[in-house]
Design goal:
By secondary structure, the chain is an alpha/beta fold. The protein has helices at 9-14, 83-92, 111-124, 147-152, 170-180, 207-212, 219-236, 248-259, 270-274, 296-308, 323-326, 343-352, 359-374, and strands at 18-25, 30-36, 39-44, 52-55, 60-63, 65-70, 95-100, 128-131, 159-160, 186-189, 203-204, 216-217, 240-242, 264-268, 313-314, 391-401, 420-430, 433-437, 440-441. It binds N-carbamoyl-L-aspartate and zinc ion (ZN) (2 copies).
């Protein structure tokens, strides 16, 4: 985004100067950063009068996190989340930009709808809300949406997705991939073959789904779509992004496709990096999600693939649901779980603490690479002089027991409640303005 004026624009200009003292700069050694007029103006060892000093001794500074996959529910389901509450959750989680999925009501399938989301996000001003456009009208899977008009709108839509549903018609997928090349777009696919895993499928297909009597969702239902889509990406010479990869088989396909030079990228969610299908044994609908939680063998392969770059990014798939949609028998409850506030902690716990990833790699997987995939200028930039001051400060040594009741989200379907995780986000800056300071969201 080049035009980042928002309702807080006036106060941005007059914002205080911040001196961030002694942060570990994405693992590249300790240093100070001076933040002035929205930009990093100095780096190194700094003294500055009249600056608000932020003591970052022992904290890691990362470029502001970018989430490729957030459900904000506005318009249509403001009882589950609003752009304001979702933005607050994002700021609390260290994010400075989120891609807002199109499965709202109405669906984001026109230029006007996309611009409305952009404007609502700007009015709130806590995080850059970048709309994702639907691939097909009303997510109907029948007719392409106004992809070009959305791309040329003020919202400059680049990521298109029918997420929640799979673009299962191969011919339509092919046409969408051809179309988006004109403006450097990408299709983010919810990979679920509807014949192999229909809308009732809700538990990884295996011994446990049989024992629990829940309809099985086999890994192959994801893998056949991933395989098909990488071949379509190769054929069209266009870009496909695989949303919420959940199986070792999908990782194998991705590894092959990348070795061929096919333009495919992929994301993994925090929950698929840590939670396994055994969580379903109590029939707690909090753990009902699409795609389902998988066995430990898959989780281990997902971690390896994220560490070696086969999976490019971590994305939350933050999917808030109101109590009355979640509190049902498992088979009837809504799919989805919260993710924005604990995403970085989960990555710190399973990847950094386990020695699988450095903080510099986390900065790549949660900021630079998702910003590049989404074509978001001004985000995912290095913490260097002249760059926009989009950053977050995290205490890597903190050990925190998650309390779902303290969430900024309107919903409470938080799979991390009661879980002990590492790392704590202390502050987030969006173009030099703190959106989170001392762990308090700055509304
Ligand atoms: N992940 C989910 O289980 N649910 C998402 C849709 C989706 O990401 O497929 C939702 O919108 O609730
Ligand atoms: Zn999905
Ligand atoms: Zn989703």
């Amino acid at each position: 985004m080049t035009d980042n004026t928002n309702a807080k624009g006036a106060s941005d200009a007059m914002a205080a100067t911040y001196l961030i003292k002694g942060a570990d700069l994405a693992g590249a050694g300790a240093g100070d950063l001076l933040v002035q007029d929205g930009v990093i103006t100095r780096a190194g060892s700094i003294t500055a009068k009249d600056a608000v000093v932020v003591d970052a001794d022992g904290l890691v500074a990362l470029p502001g996190l970018v989430d490729l996959h957030t459900h904000l529910r506005e318009p249509g389901r403001e009882d589950a989340e609003t752009i304001a509450t979702g933005s607050a959750a994002a700021a609390a989680g260290g994010f400075t930009a989120v891609l807002a999925m199109a499965n709202t009501n109405p669906v984001t399938d026109t230029a006007e709808a996309a611009e409305r989301i952009l404007d609502l996000g700007r009015r709130c001003g806590l995080v850059d809300v970048q709309p994702v456009g639907a691939v097909t009208k009303s997510l109907g899977g029948e007719e392409l949406a106004e992809l070009g008009l959305m791309a040329r709108s003020r919202a400059r839509v680049r990521v298109f997705s029918d997420d929640g549903r799979c673009v299962h018609d191969a011919r339509l997928m092919r046409r969408a991939l051809e179309y988006i090349k004109a403006f450097g777009g990408v299709i983010s696919q919810h990979s679920q073959d509807p014949r192999l895993a229909d809308g009732n499928a809700c538990c990884h297909e295996g011994e446990l789904s049989g024992r629990l009597g829940l309809p099985g969702w086999p890994g192959v239902a994801e893998e056949v779509i991933v395989a098909r889509d990488v071949m379509l990406a190769r054929h069209t010479n266009s870009r496909v992004h695989v949303a919420h990869v959940s199986t070792a088989g999908s990782v194998e396909v991705l590894r092959w496709a990348k070795a061929q030079g096919i333009a495919v990228t992929a994301e993994v969610t925090p929950h698929h990096l840590l939670l396994t299908t055994e969580r379903l044994a109590t029939y707690d609908p909090t753990f009902k999600v699409n795609p389902p939680l998988r066995p430990q063998e898959d989780v281990i392969e997902l971690r390896k693939a994220l560490a070696d770059g086969t999976i490019d990014a971590v994305a939350t798939d933050h999917a808030p649901h109101a109590r009355h949609d979640k509190q049902h028998a498992f088979a009837e409850a809504a799919f989805g779980m919260l993710g924005l506030e604990q995403a970085l902690q989960v990555v710190a716990t399973v990847m950094v603490h386990e020695g699988l990833m450095t903080w510099a790699q986390v900065a790549a997987a949660m900021s630079a690479t998702p910003a590049r995939i989404a074509g978001l200028a001004g985000h995912g930039r290095p913490l260097a002089v002249g760059e926009p001051a989009n950053l977050t400060l995290v205490d890597p040594a903190a050990i925190v027991t998650v309390d779902a009741g303290r969430s900024h989200s309107l919903s409470r379907n938080n799979p991390w409640h009661g879980e002990t995780l590492r790392g704590q986000v202390h502050a987030t800056f969006l173009r030099g303005r703190p959106t989170l300071l001392d762990q308090e969201v700055q509304v």
